[in-house]
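Hey, can you fold this one?
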Amino acid sequence: MLNIPLSVNKKLENCNNILIVGAGGGSDVLCGLPLYYTFLKQNKKVHLANLTHTDFKTIGEHADPIKLDANLLGANSIIKMPSQNYVEGYLSQFFKAALNQENIVWMINRASIKDLKKSFERLVEYLKIDAIVLVDGGVDSIMKGDEDGSGTMFEDTLTLAATKDIQIPKILACIGFGTEVEEGLNHYRALENISNIIKQGGFHGNCSLVNYMHSFKFYKTACEYIWNQPGHKKSHISTRIIPAAEGEFGNFQMYEDEGAIEVCISPLMNLYWFFDADAAVYNNTVIPHIENIETLYETIQAAVPRIKQIKTRSREPFPYI
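Sure. Predicted structure:
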């Protein structure tokens, strides 16, 4: 199991029905699998959800999910035809193929914060959830929005804002520091933000995901099952976390088709960072500008310019040599 920090275990010790959510969507839910494995070993009931990138309008062409409401579907192991972007369904299929378990992976459609809040509240009520762990592949969920290089923080911001008023314990877990090369994340400012959260008392500590752990093997096997489906997209986050956990270093590519972008695989990538989710909400400068907007389109129109234009903290290099 993961050596989860004591303060996280303390916060969740009386919680027995945990929802792990891929905060930024896409493949973020995969980064929650080592936590899923660990919580199961702690005799907790665990559910998986994701702010999905799957198109709800066309999903019926390749799958037959459970419908809880218009913005909330449950992916199961039934896949009628191959899809290039159906992490949730293939993850459910992995549970069926590898473990003979019928596990639903819940898909939360991207929407305005008001509508997202309704979806989260519906899911919490339906599953009787008593704690939420938001998982970010990378660390852009702790960006404030005033950095030159805040990455792709928008979707993480949606999830943080939508869950902030749900009155149960909420943890934010980030893994993949240094993986967000394509996003141009300013890692100097990310560390500065972490230091600020430490001052605020919202940091719960770190733990490493390493190759001898069963939780790591479970995560890697699930990822490879999904990536081996015909034409399915890989995660540029997890394809860097996995080799980092296996001791690779420097410009290492897990797959030949990953592209020509130079990376620096390091032990920083397989570290989990645990925060009080409310601290990330408190520091986020974008949420107050978008949480009362009615539609997703208007939310994007309000958020993206602010993220791009309010850059009071410049990009800085690491001072280490």
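The first helix runs from residue 6 to 12. Let me know if you want another pass with a different chain boundary.
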